[in-house]
Structures are given as C-alpha cells and as structure tokens.
Design goal:
alpha+beta; Phosphorylase Kinase, domain 1; Transferase(Phosphotransferase), domain 1; 4-stranded antiparallel sheet; 3-stranded antiparallel sheet
Length: about 240
C-alpha cells in the first residue's frame, strides 16, 4: 500500500493506492472505499472519490499524526482530552452507522490545530456487509488492541472503546499501556501490571481503567457514555 500527496481536480489530496496486485489487499481497499464513502463527520477524514486505477482519494488535511506528536512525550491534559473527545465523537457516529474502526491508534489520528480526525479505515468492519476476513484473522496493533480482538473477534464496537482508552493512556503517560508485556496481557495473563497515571492526571485513572477492562461488559457501553464520563471529569478538573 502506498499513500502520497497528489493533485486532483485542482486541489491537493491524499491518494491511497495498491503496490502490486495482491487479491486480499485489493479486496480490503475496495471494502475501505465502501465503508468510508458513506461516512460524513467533522472528525473523520472524508473520502472524495476513487480514481480509474481504484486508488482512494482522500481530502488533504494538513496537520501531524498523533503518533508523531507523542514522540516528544506526553501531551498536556487539556489537549489530550480534547483529542479523545474528537475521537469518541467520530466513533459514536461511525458505530451508529454500523461501522467499527478496529484500528484506533495514534498513527491513525490526525491532529489539525485544535481538531483531531480519525483516519485509515483499512481494517474497519461494516456490520451491514458480508465479512471478507475469517473471524479469527488477527488485524490491528497489539498495543491498542482489545483482548477479544486479539482472539479474532471483530464484531464488538466496545473494542474501539478499549483502543481509545489505550490512546488516552498513551497521551497522558507518553507510552502505551502494558509496555513490552502487552501480548502477555492480551493472551490472558492478569499478572501484567498497568502502571498508574501520573499524579497530575490521576483523576482520569478510573475512566482509563474502565475503558481498558478485559471483559467488554465492564467497559463503557457506547462511545457516548465514554464521552460523557470524560467530560464530567474534565469539567470537575477546571
């Protein structure tokens, strides 16, 4: 897969195209077009069209990836929570449309000024469409992957809420949860410790802990509930 800037209809865009002719990769690109093509939200990078060679044409949104921003260390709490709010707003909308992102991570969050945008729905699942991968196929990034997703379950919207909790933890601490032992945690080892948040942001500890619960039933039931809890704590902290 190759992603590059290009000119399209007299505007700067981002083009995502295949390198080679791998049938599974081609199928995933077609599915991404079908999923993102119907999503319209201020916190989701919009798909503008599809070129003649089946490349995807996305709007160019100048900014920096959250992954790059985190290379300099933890974010200021106010900025971290604003990014989390935007991500949860995007997920609330996508989930209402029957779309699970399933790869929420700093590399797939674009920070543009005071706004965060969710991008790269390449691993997304549209619950209204026939699956193109087997149920037990492992897709995602371990540091931000929910335990059930690690086991191949790709049908629960709460997996995205776990990933968002992991992103919040990363933004507030400067590192993903569970560090180098994350695979042990995902495989079921509850002896793997989760280091506490810094004292300056300890008020967010219960929220992050709930989002990172191993059992999906112990997490927030939906993005809206997660967002409301986050806003309550943020308001109390001001």
């Amino acid at each position: 897969m190759r992603v590059e800037l290009a000119r399209w209809e007299d505007r700067l865009v981002v083009v995502k195209r295949l390198l080679g002719t791998h049938p599974v990769a081609s199928q995933r690109l077609e599915r991404e077009a079908a999923v993102v093509g119907r999503l319209r939200h201020e916190n989701i990078v919009p798909l503008l069209g599809i070129s003649g060679d089946a490349s995807l044409i996305y709007a160019y949104c100048p900014g920096v990836s959250l992954e790059a921003a985190l290379e300099r260390g933890p974010l200021r709490p106010r900025r971290a929570i604003k990014i989390a709010r935007d991500v949860l707003s995007a997920l609330a909308y996508a989930h209402a449309e029957g779309v699970l992102h399933l790869d929420v991570k700093p590399a797939n969050i674009l920070v543009k000024g005071e706004t965060a945008l969710l991008t790269d729905f390449g691993f997304a699942k549209d619950l209204g469409l026939t699956a193109i991968t087997t149920q037990d196929m492992l897709l995602g990034t371990p540091s931000f992957m929910a335990p059930e997703q690690f086991k191949g379950v790709r049908t629960d919207h709460r997996s995205d809420l776990y990933a968002t909790g992991a992103v919040i933890y990363h933004m507030l601490t400067g590192a993903p949860p569970f560090g180098g032992q994350v695979v042990r945690w995902l495989a079921g080892d509850d002896r793997v410790p989760l280091d506490p948040l810094p004292e300056s942001v300890a008020q967010y500890e219960p929220i992050v802990a709930k989002a990172l619960a191993r059992d999906p039933d112990e997490r927030y039931s939906c993005a809206e509930e997660f967002l409301a809890a986050l806003e309550d704590v943020a308001l109390a902290a001001t």
